[in-house]
């Protein structure tokens, strides 16, 4: 199927631990989808595996516009049209945001002049002009880093943007700002998968579809009603409705054996 | 063949002023008593110094001067020019500073004894056999806006030369000096320069050296700076040349409130060894220093950094830091990084950071995730790595040729598959 990001039966693990367990997902270009799930459900791993980070055992299929993503190198996937905004973008000393974007735009066939004017235009739009000649992500606040990631997507114009935890660690003003940027990115040629474990960004961005991810799988997909259900009862409500048993986590260790031997130990 | 013996010494001292003669004769006795440097001594660890004085000759006459090279050529503004070829002073003129030959001075200018004669056999040889030197004085209160360019060249295979430059920045004066080392193509020779830098109270020194001698040559530079009260010294070091290129650098923060910055970059290729030995000695109170050195090695090249921050007993409220970052770009290349602290006073802020390794995989991943090929991402990271140093060089105007040369070395190696 062309015009989509399509993921079929995708499994991934690291160090003998399974994180994604047969995940299915379709995001058509032109739509904004939200992927929601509790911490540890595998959301970020999905991003890493799609982008091509090393270190994962991967099986299953993932394609972008009909091309097999998993057969491609990281940079080939990006040039094909997949672009991730990172949860924790790395700081790169000495490399300016501007020179980085010029090189990345040139790899996409833009001339230096075209790249330069597009960078200026998008920087003005996302209020990034003053960061262009500074080292990449250096001394940026959490919100500025996320804005920089979105600015890069705007400059490079991918077909599919993966926004990993685009709202985490941000105060409410920054969430509004990022949400506005996501809404502004909407275009018929761009698919967006917005990954989050908070509902609050959904007050400012209206996705076309919401997917709920638990234990390495998409367990439910739907519209705004799914967000309402999460708002009201959290992931627990979804688990209960779907009859999913919570994997017991390690029992909490007591502070010290001394206390466990006293009669005052609270069970 | 002329040897480094009593006969040769007598020949030189015949044409030196009286105040130098006794020093040279004393140094000669030290020279004969000392052994040739070997890797067995800690000070020469990791380093293959494969010259001996028995196989080297003194310079009889200066060779023809070399072209200035890309670094000096790119500097459009200068306030004076000194040309030293094979240890002989061929030109010396300056608009602001007073530049004289040591042999023209009737009275001992009184160098602070910063490099002890018996530091090693090479310093003793310098003290005994250096035929002449250049003294640069910036009068108190004078300001040198554009740099004095000192070209130090060696041209004759099989010789050892002993260039000597002494810079004295008067109280509240400002001086700027660029020293460019070059040697003749393919000539196996040894260059043992000595650089003395003195900054008076409230003085400001900007000093940059660019060492780009031929890969067949060896340079062992002994350089010392002593800083007066509330003075500032900014020293830059660019190391590109030599089979062995060593810089033995000492900065003494003697005056209260003095401050020192040493920034540098080096890039070793082929079988080069680039070797940095630094001692930053805090003696006065409320002094500050920062060492910031970055280097890369590829092929079979190696680099050495040993940096000692010493804080003397009375040096209260010292603030000091040193950083040494190394990129190891080929499997057989090596970088040794040994930062050290010696703190004899407890009212100080100090620290060091050191790293040796390949380009950060995390940085490469980030750049590639935006569509940059591995090759392009590596090139951007190499430029970025050195840009931090280039931005801090104390003399402007050399950014482009320095950046181009470093980049050229990497890109050539990358194209030929010599970097992993």
Helix and strand arrangement:
The complex is a heterodimer of chains A (267) and B (420).
Chain A: E1 4-14, E2 17-28, E3 32-36, H1 43-51, E4 57-64, E5 67-68, H2 74-80, E6 82-85, E7 92-96, H3 97-107, H4 112-125, E8 135-136, H5 142-156, E9 160-164, H6 172-185, E10 191-196, E11 209-214, E12 217-222, H7 224-242, H8 257-260
Parallel strand pairs in A: 3-10, 3-11, 6-9, 9-10
Antiparallel strand pairs in A: 1-2, 1-4, 4-5, 7-8, 11-12
Helix pairs in contact in A: 3-4, 5-6
Chain B: H1 6-13, H2 18-33, E1 57-58, H3 69-73, E2 80-85, E3 88-94, E4 98-101, H4 121-129, E5 134-138, E6 148-154, E7 159-161, E8 164-169, E9 174-183, E10 190-191, E11 194-199, E12 204-211, E13 218-227, E14 232-239, E15 244-253, E16 259-268, E17 273-282, E18 288-297, E19 302-311, E20 318-328, E21 334-343, E22 348-357, H5 361-368, H6 374-390, H7 399-415
Parallel strand pairs in B: 1-7, 2-6, 5-8, 6-9, 7-10, 8-11, 9-12, 10-13, 11-13, 12-14, 13-15, 14-16, 15-17, 16-18, 17-19, 18-20, 19-21, 20-22
Antiparallel strand pairs in B: 2-3, 4-5
Helix pairs in contact in B: 2-4, 5-6, 6-7
């Amino acid at each position: 199927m062309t015009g989509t990001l399509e993921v079929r039966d995708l499994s991934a693990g690291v160090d003998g631990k399974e994180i994604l367990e047969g995940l299915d997902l379709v995001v058509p270009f032109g739509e904004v989808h939200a992927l929601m799930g509790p911490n540890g459900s595998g959301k970020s791993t999905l991003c890493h595996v799609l982008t091509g980070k090393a270190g994962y055992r991967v099986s299953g299929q993932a394609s972008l516009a009909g091309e097999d993503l998993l057969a491609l190198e990281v940079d080939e996937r990006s040039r094909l049209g997949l672009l991730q905004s990172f949860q924790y973008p790395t700081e790169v000393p000495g490399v300016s945001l501007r020179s980085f974007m010029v090189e990345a735009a040139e790899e996409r066939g833009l001339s230096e002049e075209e790249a330069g004017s597009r960078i200026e235009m998008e920087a003005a739009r996302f209020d990034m002009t003053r960061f262009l000649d500074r080292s990449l992500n250096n001394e940026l606040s959490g919100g500025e880093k996320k804005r920089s990631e979105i600015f890069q997507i705007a400059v490079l114009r991918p077909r599919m943007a993966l926004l990993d935890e685009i709202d985490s660690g941000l105060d409410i003003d920054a969430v509004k700002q990022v949400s506005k940027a996501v809404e502004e990115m909407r275009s018929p040629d761009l698919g967006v998968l917005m990954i989050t474990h908070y509902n609050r960004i959904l007050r400012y961005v209206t996705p076309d579809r919401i997917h709920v991810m638990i234990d390495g799988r998409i367990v439910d997909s739907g519209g705004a009603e799914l967000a309402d259900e999460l708002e009201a009862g959290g992931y627990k409500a979804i688990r209960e409705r779907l009859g999913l048993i919570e994997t017991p986590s390690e029992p909490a260790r007591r502070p010290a054996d001394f206390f466990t031997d006293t009669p005052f130990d609270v069970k | 063949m002329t040897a480094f013996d009593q006969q040769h010494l007598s020949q030189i001292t015949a044409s030196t002023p009286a105040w130098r003669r006794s020093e040279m004769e004393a140094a000669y006795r030290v020279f004969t008593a000392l052994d040739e440097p070997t890797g067995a001594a800690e000070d020469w660890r990791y380093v293959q110094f494969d010259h001996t004085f028995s196989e080297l000759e003194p310079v009889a006459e200066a060779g023809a001067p070399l072209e200035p090279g890309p670094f000096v050529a790119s500097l459009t503004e200068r306030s004076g020019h000194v040309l030293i070829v094979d240890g002989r002073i061929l030109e010396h003129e300056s608009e602001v500073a007073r530049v004289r030959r040591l042999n023209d001075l009737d009275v001992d200018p009184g160098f602070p004894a910063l490099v002890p004669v018996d530091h090693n056999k090479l310093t003793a040889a310098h003290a005994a056999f250096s035929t002449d030197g250049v003294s640069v004085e910036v009068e108190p209160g004078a300001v040198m806006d554009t740099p004095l360019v000192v070209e130090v060249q060696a041209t004759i295979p099989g010789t050892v030369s002993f260039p000597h430059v002494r810079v004295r920045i008067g109280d509240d004066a400002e001086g700027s000096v660029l020293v460019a080392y070059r040697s003749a193509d393919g000539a196996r020779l040894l260059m043992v320069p000595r650089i003395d830098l003195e900054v008076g109270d409230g003085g400001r020194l900007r000093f940059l050296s660019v060492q780009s001698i031929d890969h067949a040559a060896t340079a062992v530079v002994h350089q010392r700076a002593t800083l007066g009260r509330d003075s500032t010294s900014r020293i830059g070091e660019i190391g590109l040349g030599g089979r062995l290129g060593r810089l033995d650098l000492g900065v003494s923060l003697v005056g209260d409130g003095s401050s020192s910055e040493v920034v540098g970059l080096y890039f070793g290729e082929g079988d080069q060894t680039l070797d940095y030995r630094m001692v930053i000695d805090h003696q006065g109170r409320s002094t500050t220093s920062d060492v910031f050195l970055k280097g890369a090695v590829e092929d079979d090249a190696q680099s050495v950094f040993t940096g000692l921050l010493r804080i003397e007993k009375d040096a209260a409220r010292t603030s000091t830091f040193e950083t040494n970052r190394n990129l190891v770009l080929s499997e057989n290349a090596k970088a040794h990084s040994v930062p050290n602290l010696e703190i004899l006073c407890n009212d100080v802020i100090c620290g060091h950071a050191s790293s040796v390794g390949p380009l950060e995989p995390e940085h490469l991943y980030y750049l590639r995730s935006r569509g940059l090929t591995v090759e392009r991402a590596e090139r951007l990271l190499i430029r970025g790595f050195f840009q931090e140093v280039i931005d801090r060089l104390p003399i402007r105007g050399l950014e482009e040729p320095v950046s181009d040369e470093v980049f050229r070395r990497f890109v050539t190696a990358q194209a030929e598959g010599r970097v992993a």
